[in-house]
Amino acid sequence: MTPGLPAALYVPDRDGFLATDLTIGPWDPGLQHAGPVAALLAREAERGTGIPDGQTVRLAFDILAPVPVGPVRVAARQLRPGRRIELLEAVLTAGGSERPLVRLTAWRMRSSAVEGTPEAPVALPGPEESRPETAAFFTTDVAYHRALDWRFAHGSFNAPGPAAAWTRPLCALVEGEPMSPLQHLLVMTDAASGISAVLDWRRATFANVDLTVALVRPPAGDWLGVDAVTTIGSSGAGQCFADLHDATGRIGRSAQALFVAPR
Question: Which residues form the Acyl-CoA thioesterase-like C-terminal domain (predicted)?
Answer without folding.
Answer: 127-260
